[in-house]
Amino acid sequence: MTSTRARASTPPASSPQHPPSYYAASAHDLAHQPPLDGSTRCDVCVIGGGYTGLSAALHLAERGFDVVLAEAQRVGWGASGRNGGQLCSGQRRDQWALEKTLGTERARQLWDLAEEAKRTVRERIARHAIECDLKPGLLHAAHKPADAEYFARYADKLAGEYGYDRIRAVDRAEMAEMLGTRRYFGGNLDLGAGHLHPLNYALGLARAALAAGVRIFEHTPAQRYDRLTPTTVTTPRGDIRAEHLVLACNGYLDAL
After folding, report:
1. Which of 73, 107, 133, 139 is geometrically suited to a Cys-Cys bond with 197, CB 3.0 to 4.6 A?
2. How are the residues of the chain apportioned to helix, strand and coil, as percentages rounded to the nearest 5?
3. Cα–Cα distance measured from residue 74 to residue 48, given in angstroms and rounded to the nearest whole number
């Protein structure tokens, strides 16, 4: 059987620390995990140590799989450790847009998926005692009158059509009282959403994954892999042979 190989990946040069930020400065640091040195085998190899890779590794390990996670930098090094920390309701497009594009049934499925995602995050934080400053509520502020009207109508839509009663409209006077400025024309307050420390959440997932038996190798960039079964993932100082492969690199996928 011939092997189809991906071209070599060229991730950013390895850094011993997370990029400077408020999050990095206030992180509950995780002990450095060693780079892979030699060859190893596993059921599942996960490439990428952000939310996707860490969550996948944890889910799989909890179900009895032997999991190896390879991260080119440090876990949470990319966007997972540097995002705004918002635990939002719904998708990146509102339900009106999703209904128009996909139909009401698919739009409802995407809404339900997002609600499940919020529950999963909260359950993981509670189960593994992840200290990531989770706080309830997100305030969406309108910088022009038309936006205030939109936010109010959207809150009504979610309550009436999706049974979501955790969001309500906020008028200009209440917004000024909340923020100490009259710059905004209103908005809505979503108490079913929230905010957390994104890097501490990623590091907490990593600790939970380690406790579940996941072997995490930091500073271990995946250079290429083949499409055989088992697959072989090549790294600078060793190979990982796995029955299954999860590519969880997002913006750092590069040539993989």
Report:
1. 133
2. 35, 20, 40
3. 9
Q: What is the pLDDT of residue 185?
A: 97
Question: Which residue matches tokens 């002990």?
Answer: 31
**What Å distances lie between residue 76 and 14, 56, 73, 125, 187, CA to CA?**
13, 14, 9, 16, 32
CB 76 within 8 A of CB 199: yes
User: At 4, is the pLDDT very low, low, confident or very high (cuts 50, 70, 90)?
Assistant: very low
Contact 25, 83 (CB under 8 A): no
Q: How far is CA 144 from the centre of its chain?
A: 31
Residue 73's closest CA among 48, 45, 103, 36? Answer: 48
CA nearest to 206, candidates 66, 50, 17: 50
* pTM, two decimal places: 0.91
Cβ burial of 226 (10 Å; 0-12, 13-18, 19+) is: middle
Residue with tokens 């994104």: 198
Count helices and strands in the chain by DSSP H and E runs: 7, 10
Could you say which DSSP state residue 92 is in? Answer: S
Beta bridge partners of 64: none
Question: What is the residue whose two structure tokens read 């011939």?
Answer: 2
What is the chain's length?
Answer: 256
Packing angle, helices 198-211 and 51-62, rounded to 10: 30
